[in-house]
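Practice record 12: protein with nicotinamide-adenine-dinucleotide.
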Amino acid sequence: MVLKPVEARSHQAPSQLERHHLHRDEKFRNNRPALRWNNSIFQRNRGKSRRNVFIYYFCSAYSLNKKIMDNILVIGSSGQIGSELVMALRKIYGNDHVYATDIKQPTLEIRNSGPFQILDVLDFKNLLHFLVRYKITQIYNLAAVLSGNAEKIPLQAWDINMKALMNTLEAARQSDARKIFWPSSIAVFGPTTPRHNTPQLTVMEPNTVYGISKLAGERWGEYYHNRYGVDFRSVRYPGLISYKTEPGGGTTDYAVEIFFDAIEKNSYQCFLKEDTALPMMFMDDAITNTIRLMQADGNKLSLRSAYNMAGISFDPKELAKAIQKHLPDFSISYKPDFRQAIADSWPASIDDSVAQKDWGLKTEYGLDEMTRVMLEKIREKLSK
Ligand SMILES: NC(=O)c1ccc[n+]([C@@H]2O[C@H](COP(=O)([O-])OP(=O)(O)OC[C@H]3O[C@@H](n4cnc5c(N)ncnc54)[C@H](O)[C@@H]3O)[C@@H](O)[C@H]2O)c1
């Protein structure tokens, strides 16, 4: 279901989707258990004043209404994370309540299962208009230029990454969409950070434009929380591994490319050295934990910058060995490029005990299990 851009429709009669939403809201209102202001309510609350009982029931009905009616906007929904996150959110909140938006077309699965609209997060007016028009209560903002691509266009990448975040924070402050998820990255760490079991709080001197923008973003998120009460939540994703959508130009992309080449060519040329260990995570674990953080009790969150997220740490040689258990003739060669310097500045492993304690971060996939699923799913995908 594709929505037309907001601007083009602002003075027109309600679209089919809007009529559908009006009908849905109407149905919801009609089916809500009626609060009958008869004596039984007051009898059940003997000893309390009629005024207080009324306020109590009014507030309960209001919060129930708000809970059921959560409307979620995903910005950057056509990318590697967005295309899986949207589907997971639609399963939980209902297809109609999760609005997918991007500047490029979505997967068929997203297009056919719920609302999608082209929306540029850099266009503040349209973004704010969207939040108000569709009564958005939560935003997941995934739009960014990733590490590898950002090094090719540093000034543009800085502008895009910062404006995408600042527009979202400011639009949230000015609307009811007060809860925001915005991903940070292990790129916030730099060459002076302890490389092994990197703590939550440590030296942070990133030397890539992507890392600098993520660190600045974490600071701004915390600032908007402290100053304006925006419910900002974030994690420092490790490299994410998935089979559904191509990765978007990051330094950990090798860990996805290798599976496709293994099945198609039985060999892979890696752009990192064989012993470059980095923290990685299977997409299912990343999505589950992202939603877990967003559903966590805000009072239990001791951090409003970004939580470390460890996943599994391995280097290209270890990943190749895991693949060889399924494809014994698979071979790997190494030809490091400019991304080697980026990887060398990042941690090899991460300590995420604070996230475990605050909101129950936990992962299910180890290296072998992830390898098995990746090979199986990519084989299925390529044979279609
Ligand atoms: N994938 C990873 O391994 C990883 C690791 C750490 C952090 N992250 C972060 O997670 C987020 C999403 O990553 P991803 O891998 O899905 O990236 P991706 O490049 O695959 O997807 C990003 C999406 O944002 C869209 N986009 C770009 N500019 C936009 C704009 N102006 N308006 C609206 N949409 C726009 C792109 O079209 C793309 O579909 C990013 O913030 C990234 O920095 C990703």
